[in-house]
From TrEMBL, chain B:
Species per Swiss-Prot/TrEMBL record: Pseudoduganella albidiflava
Gene3D superfamilies noted in UniProt: MetI-like
Membrane topology: Multi-pass membrane protein
Source organism phylogeny: Bacteria, Pseudomonadati, Pseudomonadota, Betaproteobacteria, Burkholderiales
Residue ranges crossing the lipid bilayer per the database entry: 76-98, 110-130, 160-184, 205-230, 265-289
Protein name (record): Sugar ABC transporter permease
Database matches in Pfam families: BPD_transp_1 (PF00528)
Compartments where found: Cell membrane
Domain ABC transmembrane type-1: 73-286
Family: Belongs to the binding-protein-dependent transport system permease family.
InterPro entries referenced in this protein's UniProt entry, alphabetically: ABC_transporter_permease, MetI-like, MetI-like_sf
Record CDD domains: TM_PBP2
Keywords: Cell membrane, Membrane, Transmembrane, Transmembrane helix, Transport
Domain of life: Bacteria
Length: 319, 299
């Protein structure tokens, strides 16, 4: 560190835009210096570490998949890592439409549709509100609004338990407790800090001149929003969607407290399937139900992995 | 172009305020009012229904005489330290190793991050199953000929907490990796060239120069993990239901039980307030420092 050239510590650019891995690869493969770096003990060590770590991360997925297609007779043999000898889809069938989620024994499909009914409006509305909030805060800057935004941001750190009971009472007072609109409203409330932050940061990165020009042309609040800002918001909307779908689909606590028995989301039903089973535990059915419950966020993640990573880095690092 | 007359400015900011009504309602109604309400109830004698009397800090005194609460606080402290330390170390190592221009980076990133897409309920259930002494790893090892191999932490009162650490670290360390990796990618190549010229070993550069430079990403990761620690509930319910006995009780579960199971909302509110104050005491200085650091960094 004595060398002066080690000093110019540059400030990192916004971390949301990592250097494209592909060009790094191309450069690495083209350069002769890179080539000799392969197959040294250090490289072998690197791969050894990464592969070992990857196995730790993949084991549960493997166990889940394998167990979900085994008949119970095979499971009783007691080797969770053994590949299935007689694969069967019966546990999946059972999990979907026959497993008992409490008193009812109609499988987890009801919970799936409940989760859809909760997630779709919650995601759509919380993104819409987040976009309007972010737009108003970063371009119109009404006086005093930033103080309220700060309150909202502190709210993001509050343990949900502090707000739970008063919210139950408030929703009960307006007869929304244990109802679909009630749980949607709760998700919007809990999602608002992150959504507002995300959109505020995105709009803050757009040039102010654009907005000023639109103002001079006589654009009003809503017109500028719908005709100018919203069409430019696709990247951040995708990120927001991934974050909110994952959060809301995976929620357990809020669904448990606010949804009411007719609207219990899949996560709550899954927990019921596993913890209320009397007699022999049907591990294969349980695992099939677990995979089914995780399917939507996992699919979203696998099909939009790049956006997912960006969304996490984006939504979390800035602010 | 005519300079915007006063009236127009006022009308515009009026529509901005109208657009912000949901945010104002949420900030004041859902966050401020609920906290005030909880604070008020925590100094009353409320049981099933909130009552308006004032009993001072009686609920807090009872709370801190409650063995289960003390245990759940202790559990949270131990769990939090282990969970955050493990996630940070593992996440940092994964990020550093992935950053060595390895083949298959995209696949590895996917593998390390996919658990984060799963719910804590699913995570808890899968790990409960893998750690189950009769069917999981212990049994597999015994079948392989290690006759008295024992790995039954999940049913041991003094070890059960570690199993929750394992499961949740599995779930969340990919997130730390993603954050730190994007931080690493922001560091200038020049730094590495300079270090190479000086003959500084790579690991020293990482420890002494890169790690301090990752401060914004590290503090973000810390805050996110810290919030997960405080909210720890789903995974415990799915994995151990607080057992064996009360060995894996955590404050969030304690509060839920007293709110809805034991109908003692006064005590539960006092517990919520303790939790809230703890969170603010730890997060606020850190958040402030990070905010300052980022302001200096960006501008």
């Amino acid at each position: 560190m004595s060398h002066p050239s080690a000093r110019p510590v540059p400030q990192p650019p916004p971390p949301a835009t990592p250097r494209p891995a592909d060009s790094r690869f191309a450069a690495a493969l083209a350069g002769p210096r890179r080539k000799q770096a392969y197959f040294t003990p250090a490289r072998i060590g690197i791969y050894l570490f990464l592969v070992t770590a990857a196995m730790f991360f993949l084991v549960p997925l493997y166990v889940m998949l394998v167990t979900s297609v085994k008949p119970m007779a095979e499971i009783r043999l007691g080797n969770i890592f053994a590949p299935p000898m007689a694969p069967t889809l019966a546990p999946w069938h059972n999990a979907w439409q026959a497993a008992c989620t409490g008193l009812e024994c109609e499988g987890i499909r009801g919970g799936f549709w409940n989760s859809v009914k909760i997630t779709v409006p919650s995601v759509a509305l919380s993104i819409a509100l987040g976009a309007v909030n972010g737009y108003a805060l970063s371009f119109w800057r009404p006086r005093g609004a930033n103080a309220l935004f700060a309150v909202l941001m502190i709210g993001a750190f509050i343990p949900g338990q502090v707000m739970l009971y008063p919210l139950v009472r408030a929703l009960a007072a307006v007869e929304l407790y244990s109802s679909l609109p009630g749980i949607v409203l709760v998700h919007i409330v809990f999602g608002m800090p992150m959504m507002t932050l995300l959109f505020r940061n995105y709009y803050a990165s757009l040039p102010q001149e654009l907005f000023k020009a639109a103002r001079i042309d006589g654009g009003g609040f809503w017109r500028i929003f719908f005709e100018l800002m919203l069409p430019m918001s696709t990247p951040v909307i995708v990120v927001a969607m991934i974050m909110q779908v994952t959060n809301i689909w995976n929620d357990f606590l809020l669904g448990l407290v606010f949804a009411g028995s007719d609207n219990l989301p899949m996560t709550v039903q899954l927990n019921n399937i596993i913890n209320t089973t009397t007699g022999e535990r049907l591990y294969n059915v349980n695992m099939a139900a677990t995979i089914l419950t995780s399917l939507v966020p996992l699919a979203l993640y696998f099909f939009s992995g790049r956006w997912f990573v960006r969304g996490i880095a984006n939504g979390a690092v800035k602010g | 172009m005519v300079a915007a007359p006063r009236k127009r400015v006022r009308a515009a900011s009026l529509s901005a305020w109208i657009a912000l009504v949901p945010m104002v309602a949420t900030a004041l109604g859902a966050y401020v009012l609920t906290i005030l309400w909880t604070a008020r109830v925590s100094v009353s004698s409320s049981r099933i229904f909130p009552s308006g009397d004032f009993v001072g800090l009686g609920q807090y005194e009872r709370l801190f005489r409650n063995a289960r609460w003390l245990l759940s606080l202790e559990n949270l402290a131990i769990y939090g330290l282990l969970f955050i330390a493990a996630c940070m170390v593992l996440g940092f190592l994964l990020a550093v190793f992935i950053d060595q221009k390895v083949a298959g980076e995209g696949v590895l990133r996917t593998v390390f991050l996919y658990p984060y897409a799963m719910s804590f309920v699913a995570t808890g259930l899968v790990w409960q199953w893998i750690l189950n002494p009769e069917l999981g790893i212990q049994q597999v090892a015994r079948h392989l000929g290690f006759g008295d191999f024992t790995f039954d932490w999940i049913v041991q009162q003094d070890k059960v907490l570690f199993t929750i650490v394992i499961a949740t670290v599995w779930q969340a360390s990919g997130l730390v990796m993603a954050l730190l990796l994007s931080g690493l990618r922001g560091i200038d190549e020049e730094l590495w060239k300079a270090a190479r010229i000086d003959g500084i070993p790579k690991w020293r550069v990482y420890l002494s120069i890169v790690l301090p430079m990752l401060w914004p990403s590290l503090s973000t990761a810390f805050i996110l993990l810290f919030v997960l620690v405080v909210k720890l509930f789903d995974a415990v319910v799915a994995m151990t239901q607080g057992g064996p006995g009360t060995a894996s009780e955590v404050p969030a579960k304690f509060i839920m039980d007293y709110l809805f199971g034991r109908a003692n909302i006064g005590l539960a509110s006092a517990a919520s307030m303790v939790l809230l104050l703890t969170v603010l005491a730890i997060v606020a200085p850190l958040y402030y420092a990070r905010h300052k650091a980022m302001q200096r960094g960006v501008k």
